[in-house]
Amino acid sequence: MLQPRAGWREQVAARGVSLAALPRPLRFGAVGAVCATVQLATLAALVHLGLERHMANVCAGLLATQVNFALSSRITWHDRPATGHPIAAVLSRLLRFNAMSLATLAVNWGVFALAARALPLMIAGFLGIAAATGVNYLASNWLVFRRAPAPGGTGPGRQDLAAAPVPVPSPGRIPSSEIHAD
């Protein structure tokens, strides 16, 4: 009889390695490496299919960014699930992630532009990537995948206010504080 194949997490855990046990920066780096591979493979495939190389790079980057969001949610920050209404919370987080990605792209380009004035091209490129990676990690940690607040708490870890439940009085019952005598 065929046995169902265990999922990849179970296979890794069976070998005595737990992704959750790895330090977050290591998980972040692994996800980044996978996404870089996705971007480069997509770029090569799109150019091979005849798409202009700059447009192919944009398309490959957009795909890699969405893959990065999915893997970051499931691997790097798996211990920080989105809270609130499931669809609204994930869409809000996805929007923040894509905005952060644009901001880190600007950091990459800015550092590269400054460094390329005095340094060899590859070193300038590396410095741009390194700066953007640091900003990406910090912004992901503090803004995109922030910790949920303690019950009743507020502060930097709180999730979107739009996703918070709003108390609504039950139909037919008006709180006595809202009854006015005329």
Give a concise summary.
The chain has helices at residues 8-14, 24-48, 53-76, 86-115, 121-144. By secondary structure, the chain is an all-alpha fold.
Description of the molecule:
This protein is an all-alpha fold and 182 residues long. The chain has 2 domains: 16-79, no CATH class; 82-148. Helices cover 60% and strands 0% of the residues. The chain has helices at 8-14, 24-48, 53-76, 86-115, 121-144. The longest helix has 30 residues, at 86-115. It starts with 7 loop residues before the first helix and ends in a 38-residue tail after the last helix.
Which helices and strands appear, and what pairs or packs with what?
Blueprint: H1 8-14, H2 24-48, H3 53-76, H4 86-115, H5 121-144
Number of helices: 5
- Report the span from N to C terminus: 79 Å
User: How does the major sheet shape up?
Assistant: none
Number of strands: 0
Radius of gyration: 22 Å
Q: Name the poorly predicted regions.
A: 156-169
